[in-house]
Amino acid sequence: MDQSFLADSGEEIMKTLWPYLRRFWGVEVAAMVATFVYAFANLWQPKLLQGVMNAIIKGNNDAVVRYGVELLLLALLGIIAGVANTIFSARAALNISTKMRSDIYHHVQKFAFADIEKFAASNLVVRMTNDINQVQGMIMQALQIVARVPIMFIGALVLAMMTIPEMWWMVVLMIVIVAIIAWIGLTVLGKKFGQVQGYIDQVNTIARENLMGVRVVKSFNQEANQEKKFAGASDKMTKVSVQIGYIFSMMMPGVFAFANIAIGAAVLIIGHNITDHPAYLAAIASFVGYMMQLFMAIINAGFIATGATRAFVSLGRIGTVLQHQPSMAFKDVPETELSGSIEFNHVTFSYPGDALPTLRDVSFKVEPGEMVGIVGATGAGKSTLAQLIPRLFDPDSGQIKVGGSDVRDVAEATLRDSISMVLQRATLFSGTIAQNLRQGKPNATVADMRWAADVAQSEEFIRRLDNEFDATVEERSANFSGGQKQRLAITRGVIGKPNILIMDDSTSALDARSERLVQEALARELTGTTTVIIAEKISSIIHADQILVMDHGQVVDRGTHEQLVQSSPIYQEIYTTQKAKEGRNA
Ligand SMILES: Nc1ncnc2c1ncn2[C@@H]1O[C@H](COP(=O)(O)OP(=O)(O)OP(=O)(O)O)[C@@H](O)[C@H]1O
């Protein structure tokens, strides 16, 4: 997998984020206004407190009441602004992340096979979930804290200096000390957060592999081994998380211990003034309040910096997907119907990133309605060849024609409607059988479904299900057997009566009788359809109009079964080996 897209410049990151920020600017401005009000309310509180204390010292009851009411109102304003800020920030963050997620999803739908391979499917899922969550968290934090930090820092700094000007050096000294503690603590924490993220990925991978391959794990008695692997990663994660807890538990009291030292020092140095000027007591209280606000601003800045680094990495990863142009584009031409002829002219193909071609100089021709068999050793390139027909990949050189047209010149819908592909590993989607079948023909009626099920030999078992075609297909179609899944996939493949039907080892889980019945039904019901059958067993393609024999990415021989048995050494070898095996099994 290509990793070169992990690092991104600030400009790239802004390019990704800016359209989303602009789109939801209203709610973002509302969040910022609320944050300004909140900061103002907080900054004004120590001043009013000072006023109350002075009034008490002077015994001015009216002023005490007035300041007290003002203080209450200010606190109320602060609470309202804080709540409003949280609501607007959450709304903005959610709006942005939802739109981003749907944009990635729509964009990925346009990707060619090669693009999905480049990113790896599971990696794309992580980008749509985890990375988006990181960005969502950052936006929320940014709208809640980022605007507040400079206001609180500058405001508290100025007001602290104004409250007791001769203590300016104490303010500067404390800022330096707290900044150093926060910097050291957060640098260490940043690294630890990174480690925890790595362990979370490991734990997820092990759990997913283990659960998805649960049958293999159990049949090979691997439970203990898998548990050990899981426990190893999980223990490491716990250890680092505990370390993070320790650092946190030391950092915050550490900062506040310094704050208290500052208070102590302030009282010591200027405390003697209190007897002569009692107003000093109120000033000290106000000064201490501002110092606390100053420290919190520094710590918050540190937290944002730590969170932002991670979110920027995520934004970079999201941007790479959004800005990736699909490597293969279909022409914007009107949809047409293609006949079932297939022609390969000197086709050479390599998978993205591979140095050597998987298919080399492949040429052959198939007439509409023919049945073509493809045989060859495992890894010979049979599936690769089949994938080029519906243009899942483009060849490096050469030309592929379907219905007489170059596949690069027709609309995507034309190809998808004319060609249907059934794979060995049948992929069904959770929902109902009918929903899965309608992927093959959107407006399929129950009669269409019955006809297709009859061809694919799935009618019998579907009829025995409680809701027949409305029966549920669970996630990963776990409620069906391997053979039933294949039959359902064939049903979906034939329901649209395609002009070309490609079956890539898609009857491997069927018994010999069912396979024969499927083939007979295909020949009877889909007379005009060209059928391309990739088969392990020669018996599956023995009646084909022509058979392509593949070896190391090349079509080495072509002909009917009778011709190849006479002329093709590779075919002869496959055939005699299979016959000998059948003889032994009989
Ligand atoms: N998506 C892919 N990316 C890179 N290489 C691939 C990919 N799919 C297949 N290959 C490689 O291409 C070669 C041909 O694979 P292909 O699946 O076409 O063979 P096959 O003849 O269908 O084999 P089998 O009978 O085992 O299904 C193999 O060496 C395989 O490793």
From TrEMBL:
Under the heading SMART domains, the entry gives:
AAA
Molecular-function GO terms, alphabetical: ABC-type oligopeptide transporter activity; ATP binding; ATP hydrolysis activity
Under Pfam families, the record lists: ABC_membrane, ABC_tran
Q: Quote the PROSITE patterns the UniProt record gives.
A: ABC_TM1F (PS50929), ABC_TRANSPORTER_2 (PS50893)
Give yes or no: UniProt keyword Transferase: no
Q: Its membrane topology, per UniProt?
A: Multi-pass membrane protein
Instruction: Identify the keywords attached in UniProt to this record, alphabetized.
Output: ATP-binding, Cell membrane, Membrane, Nucleotide-binding, Transmembrane, Transmembrane helix, Transport
Residue ranges constituting the ABC transporter domain according to the UniProt record: 342-577
The protein's name in its UniProt record:
ABC superfamily ATP binding cassette transporter, membrane protein
Spans traversing the lipid bilayer: 24-44, 71-94, 145-162, 168-189, 246-274, 280-305
Where found in the cell? Cell membrane
Q: Which InterPro entries match?
A: AAA+_ATPase (IPR003593), ABC1_TM_dom (IPR011527), ABC1_TM_sf (IPR036640), ABC_transporter-like_ATP-bd (IPR003439), P-loop_NTPase (IPR027417), Type_1_exporter (IPR039421)
Provenance organism: Lacticaseibacillus sharpeae JCM 1186 = DSM 20505
One GO cellular-component annotation of the UniProt record comes to: plasma membrane
Residue ranges of the ABC transmembrane type-1 domain?
29-310
